[in-house]
Amino acid sequence: MVMKIVLVAAVVMALGHVTGQRCMTRDQRNEYRELVTMASCVKPKPSLVQLPVPEGFDYVTPSAVTLHQCTGLSCSAFPERCLPMPGQTQNRTYKVYASSRNGIKPVCAKVRVQEHLGCVCRCDERACPSNRVFNRETCECECNPYLETRCKNRRDVYGEEVMWSSKFCSCECDKFEECDSTTVWDPNLCQCAPMF
């Protein structure tokens, strides 16, 4: 990790020499190196973490605590993110006053949040929604090819008036109709269907 930081700093200094002039003064370079070191994904830093609100309540007091987190730290390889190392988290439990806006007396409740013990730069596979799959090479969520094939079959094989949307990773109807009061639009059938 230290090698990555040194590499980033060396690239920035080299950029100044390419143009025949220095981009930064010595003090500015030192300040930059310090900032890179502070923001690098080496170890968790104290961060303000929002406490979860128990179901049925509107807010908690206190609403946040300071915990060590990997969030906000930088990685030199795009699109990796600074995330907690597997097995390097610890659950913390806090007592809070859970309140509602309806005037009911606050209730003492326990909430749990995660503290990070170690950080690593990697892709976050868990961030993909159900209609997308994770591509390890690009470190991104992409449209599920099975859903795209299924949509194209609906059009080509069954003659349905649908089209694949790469933007939304879903099968969309070619047209939309206003339904009367006894029916509702069914996006799977691409037509108005009776209400149940």
UniProtKB/TrEMBL annotation:
Q: Which UniProt keywords apply?
A: Secreted, Signal
InterPro entries documented for this protein: CXCXC_repeat (IPR004153), Cystine-knot_cytokine (IPR029034)
Source superkingdom: Eukaryota
Which Pfam families has this protein been placed in?
Answer: CXCXC
What GO cellular component entries does it have? extracellular region
Compartments, as annotated in UniProt? Secreted
Q: Any signal peptide, and if so, which residues?
A: 1-20
**Name of this chain's protein:** PDGF/VEGF-related factor 1
